[in-house]
Amino acid sequence: MDICIEAKEEAKNEENISKIDQAWKVTNFEIVLYKKGTEVKGYAMKAPDEIRQVLEDNILILQSLSASKYIRNIKPKVT
Predict the structure, then answer these.
(1) Where are the beta strands (DSSP E) in the chain?
(2) Could you state, in order of their start, the residue ranges of all structural domains in the chain?
(3) Distance (Å, rounded) from C-alpha 51 to C-alpha 28?
(4) Alpha-carbon distance 66 to 13, whole Å?
(5) Is 65 exposed, middle or buried (0-12, 13-18, 19+ CB in 10 A)?
(6) pLDDT digit string (tens) for 12-55?
(7) Closest by CA position to 78, among listed 70, 41, 69, 63
(8) With a threshold of 0.85, does the pTM exceed it?
(9) Which of 2, 53, 74, 78 is least surrounded by Cβ atoms within 10 Å, i.e. has the fewest?
């Protein structure tokens, strides 16, 4: 029974890591023209509020995973 519980928790942890990994592989920062009046001054990154929220959520997930006793196999990846 203990082995089954441990395997289930390890699989759940690996799934969470995989979801985070996949989410960041497709995340892009938006770059827009920076204008002052009508003159183009260069480029700027659009406010990444949504990306910041995803980052904060992922940090919380990683912190909870690092506190788990079932993290042995994926600890380097979580770190």
Answers:
(1) 31-36, 39-45
(2) 2-78
(3) 9
(4) 10
(5) buried
(6) 999 999 999 999 999 999 999 998 888 989 999 888 899 999 99
(7) 63
(8) no
(9) 2
